[in-house]
Amino acid sequence: MIELYNSDNLETLISLFDKKIPITAVYGDCIYESMDFSWAAACWHLLNKSGIFYVQTDYHTVAEWKIYLDKLFGKGNFINWISVEFDWGGRSRRSFAKKTDFILMYSKGKDYKFYPERVLIPKATAGTKLDKKGTGMKIPTDFWRDMSFSTLAKERVKGTDGKNIRWQKNSKLMTRLLSAISDEEDWILDPFLGSGTTGVWCRENNRNFIGIENDPQIFSIANSRIFPQES
Hints:
Blueprint: E1 2-5, H1 9-15, E2 23-29, H2 38-46, E3 47-57, H3 62-73, E4 78-85, E5 100-107, E6 121-122, E7 137-138, E8 143-144, H4 171-179, E9 187-190, H5 197-204, E10 208-212, H6 216-226
Helix pairs in contact: 1-2
C-alpha cells in the first residue's frame, strides 16, 4: 500500500496518529538549514516500539540534530552517525570542499531489525589470503564513499525548469538504509518526499509507504515516478 500526501508534513503527521499505522522506519531528508525539529517529534509518536529513525542533513545543523535526538530518543538509542561523501561538482579556492552529508540513525527501542548481510560491500582483499572467509564481502562502516550520484546519472530527475532536482537522492542510498532495517510489507514513512526516490524504492521492494510533500510541482514529479503507469 502506498499513501501520498500533497500537504504540510507536520499537519499530516499529526493526522496519522489516529490511524495507528505501525511505522517501521522514518527517513527524513529535511531542509538542512532549518531548526524546526517538530516533525521529528511527530514521527517518534508514529514509530512502532522498535522503529528506526533516519535524518539526513549536513554541516549546517548536524550538531543541533544530534543534541535534539539524544533527548527525544535517549542517548542509549543512538545507533550511527553515517557520513556520506558526494564527490562531484565544483571546488572552493578558500576551503576544503564541503561534499559530505550526515545521516543520524536512532531506534525507538532496543529490539530493532538489522540485517547487515543484505548490504555487504566488496572487500579490497577479495581473492587474497587476507580474505579468510573467502566471500570477498564485508559489512559497511559508517563512512560511505560508494554513493556516487553525478549530475549526469540516468536516475536523475528534471524539475519543471528542465534542470536536475538538486536534492534528489539515489536508489542505492535507499537500498542500504532501508533493506538493512525492514522486511517486506513493513511501513516506511518519508515526511520530505521530494522527487519520490524513497517511494519508488518501497514500491519496487514490496514495502508499504507513506510520503508527504508540500510543493505541488515536486509532488507531481514524485507521484509520476511512484505511479508511472498512471502518468
